[in-house]
Amino acid sequence: MDALDKAILVCLSENSRMTASAIGKRVRLSVSSVTERIKKLEESGVIERYTLLVDGEAINCNTEAYLEVTLENSSYGESFASLACSCSEILRCDLMAIEYDYLLFVNCDGVTALDTLRTKLSNLHGVKGIRVRPVLRRHKRSTSPLV
Questions:
Q1: What is the pLDDT of residue 10?
Q2: Which residues are 65's β-sheet partners?
Q3: Pick from 112, 120, 118, 117: nearest CA to 130
Q4: Distance between CA 33 and CA 36 in Å, rounded?
Q5: Nearest Cα to 92, choosing from 145, 143, 56?
């Protein structure tokens, strides 16, 4: 991957619907060259998928929080992660190497829904504890390390 590929990725990170023509103008390449490079980035797995950022407030999902989950021991990790990944309110589920085991980023449609999710997770076999860290204000949101 070279600097032109990275420039194309920045364009797509800003707007995944940006046309090859618009990208070409920005990075000074022909449409066919841009299209060919994008195809190679997709085939190599650099571009995993195209996605959509939804404004949670616009659809009444305006309560964001981080949940720090501690398990009784690591043997519960796979089953916990599997369940967490199947829950639509959980947007991220990351195994951590600190005082808690998993960090979840969640988006719920209010404090009551957040508490219901916390209770549901707390009642899972192997969960020792959960700390809820509500988000007061978001300053940046991105899906790419390039922007």
A1: 95
A2: 106, 134
A3: 118
A4: 5
A5: 143
Q: What is the DSSP letter of 139?
A: -
Structure tokens at 139: 């300053």
Q: What is the 3-state secondary structure (H, E, C) of 93-108?
A: EEECCCCCCEEEEEEE
Average pLDDT over residues 123-143: 93
Find the farthest-apart pair of alpha carbons in the chain and give their distance in angstroms, rounded.
56
Tokens of 7: 């420039």
Residue 145: pLDDT over 90:
no
DSSP code, position 74: G
Identify the CA nearest to 2 among candidates 23, 27, 25: 27
- 147: pLDDT strictly greater than 80: no
| pTM for the predicted model, two decimal places | 0.82
